[in-house]
């Protein structure tokens, strides 16, 4: 292989002549194969957001677990991730959680439907009528007046 550099050209503008190359043996050296980086570095570059996100979650979970283990927080009020997973597996395996999930789902649906049934007509009425639009402020004034009566010094 013969490498030529035209006068005034940078090192990246070299021309290589190799008769075994399929393009008549002439190509620029920037087209030559660069030394391959390790495959894991290439994979890391492509999946950087995935790796950083998972690493951040892992660090947070480890800190949470260690803070309960070392009694930085009271385990009575703040459980550890390992205890949560163990309890969840136990509750799903014996079926104790399914009734609780059903009741929570029913309560959520009832609350959501009630919010829609009250909120949408109230919002439409507040948009059409000025007196109804001002009524929430009247309710809030009552709470402000109660707050002013407390002496918290």
Tags for this entry?
mainly alpha, 3 domains, three-stranded antiparallel sheet, 5 helices, 3 strands
Summarize the structure in words.
With 153 residues, this protein is mainly alpha-helical. It folds into 3 domains: 2-31, no CATH class; 37-94, no CATH class; 98-144. It has 5 helices and 3 strands. The protein has a 3-stranded antiparallel sheet, with no helix packed on it. The model has no long low-confidence stretch (mean pLDDT 77).
TL;DR of this structure?
The protein has three domains: 2-31, no CATH class; 37-94, no CATH class; 98-144. The chain is 63% helix and 6% strand.
Q: Can you lay out the helices and strands and say which pair or pack?
A:
Elements: E1 2-4, E2 15-17, E3 26-28, H1 39-46, H2 48-69, H3 81-94, H4 96-128, H5 130-148
Antiparallel strand pairs: 1-2, 2-3
- The ordered string of helix (H) and strand (E) elements is EEEHHHHH
Q: In order across it, which strands form the biggest sheet? A: 1-2-3
Q: Residue ranges: pLDDT <50 for 5 or more in a row?
A: none
N- and C-termini, Cα separation: 89 Å
Average pLDDT confidence is 77
Structural class per helix/strand content?
mainly alpha
Task: Please tally the β strands and state the result.
Answer: 3
The coarse overall form would be: extended
Helix content: 55-70%
Report the major sheet: 3 strands, antiparallel
């Amino acid at each position: 292989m013969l490498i030529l550099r035209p006068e005034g050209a940078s090192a990246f503008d070299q021309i290589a002549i190799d008769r075994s190359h399929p393009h008549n043996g002439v190509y620029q050296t920037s087209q030559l194969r660069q030394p391959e980086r390790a495959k894991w570095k290439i994979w890391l570059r492509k999946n950087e957001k995935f790796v950083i996100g998972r690493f951040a979650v892992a660090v947070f979970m480890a800190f949470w677990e260690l803070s309960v283990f070392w009694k930085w927080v009271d385990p009575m009020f703040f459980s550890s991730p390992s205890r949560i997973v163990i309890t969840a597996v136990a509750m799903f395996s014996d079926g104790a959680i399914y009734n609780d999930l059903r009741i929570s789902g029913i309560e959520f649906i009832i609350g959501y439907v009630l919010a829609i049934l009250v909120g949408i007509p109230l919002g439409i009425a507040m948009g059409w009528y000025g007196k109804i639009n001002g009524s929430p402020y009247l309710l809030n004034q009552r709470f402000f007046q109660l707050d002013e009566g407390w002496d918290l010094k």
